[in-house]
Amino acid sequence: xxxxxxxxxxxxxxxxxxxxxxxxxxxxxxxxxxxxxxxxxxxxxxxxxxxxxxxxxxxxxxxxxxxxxxxxxxxxxxxxxxxxxxxxxxxxxxxxxxxxxxxxxxxxxxxxxxxxxxxxxxxxxxxxxxxxxxxxxxxxxxxxxxxxxxxxxxxxxxxxxxxxxxxxxxxxxxxxxxxxxxxxxxxxxxxxxxxxxxxxxxxxxxxxxxxxxxxxxxxxxxxxxxxxxxxxxxxxxxxxxxxxxxxxxxxxxxxxxxxxxxxxxxxxxxxxxxxxx
Length: 277
What we know:
The chain is mostly helical. The chain contains 15 helices and no strands.
């Protein structure tokens, strides 16, 4: 009997909860009756799909350029097409749909995708513009981005220059670098090119450290190998901190034992530098 009463009580609570939700939905205010600033604030929390659905009820509000401009810039921080935003007939809603289609195309086939961006005047076909575009969007799939950069070294060079490693600890800066410019799956010549470009940029951002590009290059590969060694379950005899310090001292000039020790601790505690390697 007690269990039955408890069950009935739970059912009654659930019905009341659902009734409260339905009542709240039924009393949702008409946004046309609110001040425009407040209505736009409410709609600014919607994604593009929900905003299109909201346009079925509040067409004028949901198609407001401010909302669609915010959606464009939150997904694609920079595209060349933004320079035309003051021209007659320009629409951020139309631009969003084009950028979304171009992004889906790129993520399926990077060659067709970049052609779409260029032919529809979304991104200018020059290294600076493409690099700025890549640097400010999270919508591009990293695999296709990696393959594109491998074939467009001019864009890769510009993208490296957009990285800021000032006052960053070396392994953290290298992680950031490989977070945007993903490493290849193998230890190929392309990986060496990436590490060389990183080393040059890191030294340019941190001249006060007094490290040479060659020393940073050697240390970067040491860190990559160490992260594989410590992170791989297939490696039974892990490299010790003392061994890493000794090897680094021999291979790289200007690296103190204390600094090498801190490098080891960072990899040991945080983990992989470039998971793809």
